[in-house]
Amino acid sequence: MEKHGPLTEHLSRRDFLTLLGGGTAALWLHSLIGEEAPGGRKPNIIVILSDDQGYADVGFHGCKDIPTPNLDSLSSSGVRFTDGHVSCPVCSPTRAGLMTGRYQQRYGHEMNPGGAPEHGLPLSQITLANLLKTAGYATGIVGKWHLGMTPELHPQKRGFDEFFGFLSGAHSYLDPLLGTPNAILRGTEPVDEKEYLTDAFTREAVSFIERYRKHPFFLYLPYNAVHAPLHATEKYLSRFKEISNERRRTYAAMLSAMDDGIGAVLKKLTDTGLEKDTLIFFLSDNGGPPGNGSSNGPLRAYKATVYEGGIRVPYVLRWPAKIPAGVVYQNPVISLDVLPTALAAAGGKLPTDRPMDGVNLLPYVTGEKSDPLHDLLFWRMRENKAVRKGNWKLVVAGATPPQLFDLSKDIGETNDLAGQKPDFVKKLTGALAEWESQMVPPLWSPQVRLRQLRRAVTRRVRPATVRK
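Now predict its structure.
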């Protein structure tokens, strides 16, 4: 994929060198990406994923009513991507793309799992966990999997040494759902978890870091917060008595619990001396939906759409040993970039037997490269499609005529310029068609079974959203 476009970085190469100072910069820029950390150890890698979080619901995007001090700290001490995207506006396909570094439409994982438990990440696909395990990493996942529920699709069959979490797309925060196909599992064994689920996931993540503190590790931490059902404990609800909207208040409590958890992970890294040599990603799996109390701020629409409200998300990267604090990167990036970036840091090698769509972010955020990463970015979820080139975005939403937006002037996608630029619309439509010709049809229809499971989860939990 070509790597050029009209957007510019916040820091130029000259500014970057000035920021670091001549001697430090020379050492920094001459270090090789993938080089082992001081002492001969490879960097640890942590990927933290929130679930259905609104774009505007972090302090570093201007949120006022829900403090997120730990996410803000992560952002200020690393790189904040103002134009960070995911590859799909719903949960499972985004996770498939993140785990493979490839557009999930290349292998038919276009929608959330449908009507059968065997719907999930095809066995033909190589995961980031597979690749990092080959590179000598201990690998663990704590949280929501949502890439298949059958034994052959289990995380420990897809490159992870350890798993604590659930397999489907949603789960109660208060009920372990023992006796159901979606119980909390440690490995393959159901767990009668008593703790609020977000806190339990934090506990397990901190434990994983402690157990592998002397060995390079990859921790995938996909919280299910702040996805429905809206469940919170009084510990967190009591922080938001001033929020009168009950749904927003519960959402705020759930988000605050996750932010506390991320703070506990960061503290553990500091206490174990691993902070500088740990590469951390944070992003949401899609934009906020209309029903969970979230806010996408200035963006148009929400989850399940290919407008910015569905696909633009909070997106942060931090690696103190390699990347200076306070970088703001303004070119478009996508969740597909996580895999090649992590693998480059680990000194691993990308597969050569298949097209890879993500790009290694490290030389761009360190100033070694100044051109935009992606010439074109694409989205498709059935009849909803989009293509991005520089500041320009073409949206095809169902049967409506194509819409064209200049995101540099219209982040809310309110001013359709398609009628003024028919030739450009034709060019982008052709690019989208060319990309689609390389993809395959969806392997399954929309998520009937998952909706049924979510209803069952809701019925099992008492109506109150609070546990003392």
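Residues 13-374+456-467 form a domain with the Alkaline Phosphatase, subunit A fold (CATH 3.40.720.10).
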